[in-house]
Fold this protein.
Amino acid sequence: MPNLAPMSSLRRILVIAGGMLLGTVLATLFTHSALFQRWFGGRELAESSAYVRDVLRIVNESYYDPGAVKYDELTKSALRGVVQKLDPHSEFMDESTYRAMEEEIGGKFGGIGVQVETRGGRIVVISPIADSPGERAGIQRGDEIVGVDGATLDQGTALSAVVSRLRGTPDTKVSVRIYRPADDRTLDLSLSREVIKVESVRNVRVLPGGVGYLQITEFARPSGEEFGKALEKLKAGGMTSLVLDLRNNPGGLLTAAVDVAERFFEKNELVVYTQGRKPEDRDERRASGKHAPLKMPVAVLINSGSASAAEIVAGALKDTGRAVIVGERSFGKGSVQSIIPLGNGQGLRLTTARYYTPAGVSIHEIGVSPHVEVIMSPAEDEQLGRQRARPDITDPAEFRERFGGAPVQDRQLQAAIDVLTGLRVFDQRVAQATPR
């Protein structure tokens, strides 16, 4: 009879070794959780993708109108819905919308010149661009665009679709229906599209008392360079203090905001940082030190139309004590949108992080509060916008005849000038009292 003991021992050894090997594999999988998540997360993505694919196929094959269910258009509509559900600032961009976005970032495009966003399914004006057809027609921040060229905009109409309708070849007409909640009335406007070349730094001048003044209308690629040239002009004109007007500035590029703000900071000082979903996603933007920091009293003007990049600049200067903030609480858009090319000329604007001021304060849905609060009524703000856009009209009678109302006093600007005057007097007295 053969001896079976060695075979049994070998079998036991193989079982034990197999158990050890399986345990090692499982331990490795759970230790490397990223791999584990990738396997099972990938399965969830595959199942969801298959589900969407099945729905697209059913719609394509069964909907009564075959011309309305081409896969390309169905896919674009599905992607718009997916991204639009996330927040008002994320957006899937088809070819025309992506091209328009690139033109706007570059500082030149054709349209009526209004900055808009989605709020609660409505298309709301953040701010009209200075000296644009929209501003000259009287469009105000807070107005809702409810119709374009006779077509009513339904609740939830994609922002990209509205922007595409408003933009077009210069000198062509577009009719826009506006609902103004402040007055509970509807306005029908006929506008002529123009090439909207955004001159981001405007109205550069030295006011009495050596107060330099400039307005930044938005933060585009050229803003930092334009701001530097404006400062040199003001210094040559005898500037001893500065008013930086960011009212109705809807924002723009983070890099442009840093280019402007770093003019007030020492090299390597923190200007702003962004934080994404992971701790390692923190991205700090620090002053490059290319320019000597501006050393003089500064006041920054903001209002509820100051958003995004404008709030970054105001928040950085406020946090570090480099400026007095005057006006009204800002809009409160503190989220970061990354532009992701998708191919075929399409792209994705996706919220990937939030902005934080140097002190670690998030401005999202909170805004920047002023040190000195001066509230302007919507009517005053509208008239001031006209005055800033047309500084060439200095005769009150001519202004009243052209715009249907008398010029108004810019109480916010006057408050900023008063603050700077007080700081200058204080500095002089401190200097006089300092032993030498």
About this structure: Residues 1-7, 9-37 have pLDDT under 50 and may be disordered. The chain has two domains: 108-195, 201-338+349-430. Residues 33-62 form the longest helix (30 residues).
